[in-house]
Write a structure and sequence with these properties.
Mean pLDDT: 92
Low-confidence stretches: none
Number of strands: 12
CATH topology of the largest domain: Nucleotidyltransferase, domain 5
Shape: globular
Bound molecules: zinc ion
CATH class of the largest domain: Alpha Beta
Distance between the termini: 72 Å
Number of domains: 2
């Protein structure tokens, strides 16, 4: 199996008025490096794309890429470039990129030109920016590509900020990460969500599990789904009694805590998100926690309830004073 480390450059409208809503970012360059199984570079891909939507370069794009609009005129049209790129990718590969955006933007552009979708469901890929943070950082902070290159003392033999060069350096950073636990952290692009229950994604990492659902019409449907609302231990699959019942501080994130006799305390978190089709889907994560985190979540719940009490009181008060 190969790794396709790719990077896109895109352009956008100079004014909000001219922005095409379904295509905020138009791809103008694809750069990629193919790595073999043992992560040595075996092939490269580099292609300029002639813009068809935003013909003028956004001032930031121009500044960052050192590219002029007439240079792009020498490129080929997007649909040809993508067909060529996917041919070059071959059959058996995993995408890798710096940050999570590129795969989504690629699919959004493909969808704009009515090209067939890349896959039927979510795409597993490596977000090398995240892997770098897991391997060398504090796991939360996301660094720039140049920071990672400097940190790993990778030779800066070509300039940054063009698609090919950024793919090239991302590949070098990726090849430097050897920790198997870190490499187990696949990301999922959810531009195409699971179409049904069978396609749903449930992955177990070394210290947490992740569940990506199909789409739902509304929150009531989500609340009625047993698997989403369940608090099962992801190791022994036992239904656990909740120590803290589901609550939400903001209507988007929901939390609960349960305890497995064998495996300990587990935090369940549900994030409700809006899909490309303007429906809802859920990303649920299950994570082991310690006693201190349990206390923190308890406090969070109490705080949420307190705020709700105050709001209710104010509302009643306002209603009373109306009378
Ligand atoms: Zn268990």
């Amino acid at each position: 199996m190969n790794y396709i480390v790719f990077d896109l450059e895109w352009n956008q409208s100079n004014t909000e008025k001219e922005e095409v809503e379904v295509l905020p970012f138009e791809i103008i360059e694809i750069g990629a490096v193919k790595l073999s199984d043992d992560r040595t570079m075996v092939s490269r891909y580099d292609q300029l794309i002639k813009p068809q939507v935003y013909r003028k370069l956004h001032y930031m794009t121009q500044k960052l890429l050192h590219l002029e609009a007439d240079e792009l005129e020498k490129g080929i049209v997007f649909s040809d470039a993508v067909s060529q790129f996917l041919d070059w990718c071959g059959e058996d590969y995993i995408f890798c990129s710096w940050g999570p955006l590129d795969l989504t933007v690629l699919q959004k552009n493909m969808s704009y030109y009515n090209m067939p979708p890349l896959t039927e469901g979510p795409i597993a890929f490596y977000d090398v920016q995240k892997l770098f943070s897991l391997a060398y950082g504090n796991k939360k902070l996301r660094r720039s590509l140049e920071y990672a290159v400097d940190f790993l003392r990778i030779e800066k033999d070509i300039p940054f900020h063009r698609a090919f060069s950024d793919a090239y350096y991302t590949a070098k950073v990726f090849a430097a990460i050897r920790n198997a636990n870190v490499l187990a952290h696949m990301s999922y692009d959810v531009f195409t969500l699971p179409q049904n229950k069978e396609q749903e994604v449930f992955t177990v990492f070394d210290d947490y599990a992740k569940y990506i659902t199909r789409e739902f019409e509304d929150k009531a449907q989500i609340a009625a789904d047993k698997q989403i609302m369940s608090s099962k231990c992801y190791l022994c699959h036992k239904n656990l009694k909740k120590k803290i019942k589901w609550f939400t501080p903001n209507g988007k994130h929901y939390y609960c805590v349960a305890e497995c006799d064998k495996h300990g305390l587990m935090k369940f978190k549900i994030r409700v998100r809006r899909s490309e089709n303007h429906k809802l889907y859920v990303i649920k994560t299950i994570k082991f926690i310690g006693k201190d985190e349990l206390e923190k979540i308890k406090e969070k719940k109490e705080h949420t309830q307190e705020i709700r009490r105050i709001r209710r009181k104010n509302k009643n008060h306002n209603q009373n004073s109306d009378i």
